[in-house]
Amino acid sequence: MKNTFFYVLLSLTLFVSCNTNNQSKKEADCASTYMDYSNSDDQFTGGIKMIPITTPKGTFNVWTKREGNNPKMKVLLLHGGPGGTHEFFENFDGFLPKEGIEYIYYDQLDSYYSDKPNDSTLWTTDHFVEEVEQVRKALNLNKDNFYLLGQSWGGILAMEYALKYQDNIKGLIISNMMASIPAYEKYAAEVLGPQLPPEIYKEIKTFEDKGDFANPKYAELVQEYYYTQHVLRKPLNEWPEFINRAFKHLNPNIYIYMQGYSEFGVTGNATLKGWDVSQRLKEIKVPTLMIGGKYDTMDPKYMEWMSTQVQRGRSLTCNAGHVAQYDDPITYFNGLIKFIKDVDNKTF
Q1: Which of 4, 111, 162, 183 has the fewest CB atoms within 10 Å, i.e. the most exposed one?
Q2: What CA–CA distances, in Å, run from 260 to 51, 52, 271?
Q3: Mind listing the pLDDT tens digit for each residue in 227-247?
Q4: Would you tell me how many other CB atoms lie within 10 Å of the CB of residue 181?
Q5: Model pTM score
């Protein structure tokens, strides 16, 4: 009996040891292949690939940069703006590599690192949807590995892409963007604006009513009182270098053409005026994560509601403003990583 017990114990020890060794080997293999760019067409450029985009006005190149290597989990990042850059996402470097999740930085056409034809006929959601589709094909992204993450304006683009091409997507992430510009404007006017000191809000609205957006005082008031409460909740002198660099590189021409001058809504005849796909969310059938911020420029309750409108939705609310990935990175990345892995494991 003692001998039998001894052999059972020995077998269990060897089994556990073997499983532990196998798991360690798998983790080591994953770690060794994640940053292995050998025999890839972007090895000599460190993951950077300029992708030609065909448009009615000619062919232009957009900048992309692959980080890591995972055949099952590839996240294409759609930056905000319009006219922003991939730089808003640079702190993804601190979280996704450890999890073995591949992600791709991408500057849309007329953004800082890509070609700049400066042709406003290309500044449409239809163009940018087709641009994303061309990028997807060039990077060999498909329904078995392709996660699409759009933040702010990138969220508009991601929703529009999904409504046309969702059969290509494995998972969709909408970060800090409501499905309706009118609803966003209503929230800004009725909730966020009145939260500012009354005299400050009155002064800001006076500038806006006069159309005096170029006045340095207007920018100063918006940055000091609005941005630090609802964009990134830190004093301006504590904003991280990569966020400041992203704002420095933002293309004002495309931003003003599509969004307008105001942070409280879409002004004048900017092309995103009236954009609304809220009634079409029910068409989205792929697993979808909606990320909002408690202090965001976008209504967090509306973001939660959006997760109930898609066919397979999940909601995540961070203790953050609009740049939730930096404002509350622990909540943001824990939720993002769990979503990606749940979808990959088919446990979503």
Answers
A1: 4
A2: 29, 29, 8
A3: 999 999 999 999 999 999 999
A4: 20
A5: 0.90
